[in-house]
Specification:
Blueprint (H helix, E strand, L loop, with lengths): L15 E4 L6 E3 L1 H9 L3 H11 L2 H8 L4 H11 L4 H5 L9 E4 L1 H12 L4 E5 L3 H10 L8 E4 H4 L6 H11 L6 E5 L2 H8 L4 E4 L3 H10 L6
Parallel strand pairs: 1-4, 1-6, 4-5, 6-7
Antiparallel strand pairs: 2-3
């Protein structure tokens, strides 16, 4: 097995765990929702998601820009794609392709061990309350720091400053789990310990090595 990409400080205890949500706890990708509408036209779908409804454009939702405003501006920019762009909010729920059940099982195990759990997520504020209502596991988090509410997205350092204030423990005593290296590198500048999420099995291995879960 190759080495895990994580920061490990075995002599420093972890007193709070912070989880990203998208592609750590739930599977999310606009492709899940749009693929059936393009009916096998993969090149057109790829173009649409890389040149029209891009992740950079969607990040504005994560930064607190209302869907309606952001969609309208993009429709004006790409009138030939007016209808497909207009479906972005309608298709929001279909962009989630199920839970990562093994990660959720780890959340429940950590909670049973009385480890404080938090969420730090790039997520539109106007969609997060409904997401919480749909998914019972979100009740395990003592607090959720949501980019759309704060109007700042990872890896902006200001979001980690908000995280540290809300969690209320020293940075070195926090373990942050995320699937994007740039988000972890930003956290490490503050002294936060990190784990690059690739699979639940590797996460479990790291949690056991840190004595956060029993072997």
């Amino acid at each position: 097995m190759g080495s895990l990409k994580m920061s490990t400080s075995p002599h420093i205890p972890i007193t709070a765990l912070v989880f990203d949500i998208g592609n750590v706890v739930v599977k999310w990708d606009p492709r899940f929702a749009y693929k059936p509408l393009f009916d096998g036209r993969e090149e057109e779908l790829d173009y649409f998601l890389t040149h029209v409804c891009t992740l950079a454009w969607h990040t504005r939702h994560d930064q607190g820009v209302p869907f309606n405003d952001n969609i309208t501006r993009l429709q004006q920019q790409f009138p030939d794609h007016h209808e497909m762009i207009g479906l972005f909010e309608t298709l929001w729920d279909q962009m989630f392709d199920g839970l990562i059940e093994e990660t959720i099982a780890l959340l429940y195990q950590l909670d049973a061990q009385q480890h404080p759990l938090y969420a730090l997520t790039n997520f539109p504020a106007e969609k997060f309350t409904r997401f919480q209502q749909k998914h019972a596991f979100t009740a395990l988090f003592k607090d959720s720091i949501v980019s759309g509410t704060e109007k700042i997205t990872k890896p902006d350092p200001r979001l980690y400053e908000i995280l540290l204030k809300r969690v209320g423990v020293a940075a070195q005593n926090i373990l942050f789990i995320d699937d994007r290296m740039e988000n972890l590198q930003a956290a490490e500048i503050f002294g936060i310990q990190t784990h690059l999420f690739t699979t639940p099995a590797r996460l479990e291995e790291d949690l056991i090595s840190r004595d956060l879960l029993p072997d």
